[in-house]
Structure formats: C-alpha cells, structure tokens
Design brief:
With 117 residues, the protein is mainly alpha-helical. It is built from 5 helices and no strands. The model has no long low-confidence stretch (mean pLDDT 77).
Length: 117
C-alpha cells in the first residue's frame, strides 16, 4: 500500500515538473512567434515585402491536417495508458499552475484578469 502510494506521488511530482517546464517552453515559443508575426506585419505594411496569402493559407491547412493525422486523440489515450494517470495529472496540473509573472494581473492592475485562472 505504501509502495503504491509513494510511486503515485513520485509519478505526479515528475509529471508536475514536466508540465511546469512545458509551460515555460511554450511561453518562450509563443513570444518568438508573436515577435516574428509582428515584424512581418510591419514589413508588409511598409511595403518592403509582399505576402502570398493564398500560399500561406494552403500551408497552414496542410500543417493542420498533418497535426490532425499525426497527433490524434488515440495518441493522448495511449500516453495516458503508458505514462499512467498520476503522471498525466501532474503534467496538466504543472502546466496550469506555472505562474507567468509577465502577465500577472497584479502587475497591470487589471480588474478583468486574476491570478486564479
């Protein structure tokens, strides 16, 4: 009984750490992509570059269909079975609880945002 409980706690803790790190990595990737899109928008507005929007839409649709075919719900179910429910719960909890201080409500004194989300 104690052995099973300690295994579940360790698995949840490892999952929490993975989820926390994943949230940080996703935040950095979001920032880089947003800066790239903003820079491209400024260059398009200034007339320095032109964008073929039809090709861009086709490329994004191709990426979406590839993601749908490659990473479907069966992959999530398989990961739950292989990694275990405590690890998966830890990943979700770590991802959701990782604080992003740059976007905290107290920094901007926003009545619409709260740190409890």
């Amino acid at each position: 009984m104690i052995e099973a409980l300690s295994t579940m706690v360790a698995s949840f803790g490892a999952g929490y750490a993975v989820g926390w790190a994943l949230r940080r990595v996703v935040s950095v990737i979001e920032t880089v992509v947003a800066l790239y899109i903003a820079a491209t928008a400024v260059l398009v507005y200034a007339g320095v570059v032109t964008v073929n929007f039809n090709a861009l839409i086709n490329m994004l649709e191709g990426i979406g269909s590839w993601l749908t075919n490659t990473v479907g719900t069966s992959a999530v179910v398989a990961a739950l079975g292989v990694l275990g429910v405590p690890f998966s719960a830890g990943v979700v909890t770590g991802f959701m609880r990782a604080r992003m201080p740059a976007f905290s409500a107290t920094r901007y004194n926003s009545p619409f945002l709260s740190d409890n989300e």
